[in-house]
């Protein structure tokens, strides 16, 4: 008995209607709202409990037709389950709950039925004992998702959040948690964020710290320090601990008044070693500046179990600084800086350069990182032909 019409859709759809402005469908006979699947509507027309109360205005011939449809579907499903159980793929005959039409079509288990675990096999990807049903409000869900996505975008645009915020692993967990809660979720207030929520997150970080601490005791670790200057001109030193468990941010101190003092730097490093545990520290890594070098050598004399290691990246940067002092390189870099300064100092020249270089940029040299000077020379060399065309066009 075919349940499909000429257009390929289920014949039961002809007994539904949708009013303008409503998200759900209704029965054409009793005007009952149907918010589930097409199977619920069939149970409604047949007068069988299946997530909706029975229709009290359905014609006798339609009621008889859909009683037969449900019986045929039930028999077919029984046969399919028997076949799958014989080849070890299905849920078995005993696990098919046909006593309740609601559990058969809507996926809910009656209280008097014990659910059997479904065994998985190599044919599961090709055969399934669960029929796929068309959701009546699928089009509504699509429009609703579009509206919610626009709300998310509007929030991010208003707070000028970067687009890669959604790549954060905590973003997806947050969205899934809200969806799991469902309708009526009340977001946390500012007071909650700065009180109990922050407090519990700190407690979780403390537990995470204990995991890293055990790794330090088992495998040993390296202490890394990194100095930087914030927007207020303060010189901050970050201390991180690296081990096979990963890198862990330990603390940050304001060293504005002592960054060039070797004795105070020695005190900072010694305090961090004491906090981590001297027996756990293999090496301590710092910049290769004179004050750090002095502090590192004195620290090795004080604590003989560990080594001081200069940062390789900083060493390379200092090497490039010395190379840039050679006359031939000094003149070349100076000329390159003048070219870059001229181009980026005149809007119309910059616009013309982007036109000839297909919107490619020249790396602009930094004051504190000498490697960028050589990178600037490389980028100018790569754009040599477009730049020559640009200057020739203005002659």
Describe this entry's structure for a reader.
With 395 residues, this protein is α/β, with parallel strands linked by helices. It has four domains: 11-106, no CATH class; 138-187; 206-310, Nucleotidyltransferase, domain 5 (2-Layer Sandwich); 321-393. It has helices at 38-46, 60-86, 101-106, 138-158, 169-181, 190-219, 262-276, 290-302, 312-323, 327-345, 347-356, 371-382, 384-393; strands spanning 16-17, 25-27, 33-34, 221-229, 235-243, 246-254, 281-286, 307-310. The chain has a five-stranded mixed beta sheet with strand order 6-5-4-7-8. The protein has a three-stranded antiparallel beta sheet with strand order 1-2-3, with no helix packed on it. α1 crosses α2 and α10 crosses α12 (371-382). The longest helix is centred in the middle third of the chain and has 30 residues, at 190-219. The radius of gyration is 36 Å and the shape is elongated. The relative contact order is 0.04.
List the helices and strands and how they pair.
Layout: E1 16-17, E2 25-27, E3 33-34, H1 38-46, H2 60-86, H3 101-106, H4 138-158, H5 169-181, H6 190-219, E4 221-229, E5 235-243, E6 246-254, H7 262-276, E7 281-286, H8 290-302, E8 307-310, H9 312-323, H10 327-345, H11 347-356, H12 371-382, H13 384-393
Helix pairs in contact: 1-2, 7-8, 10-11, 10-12
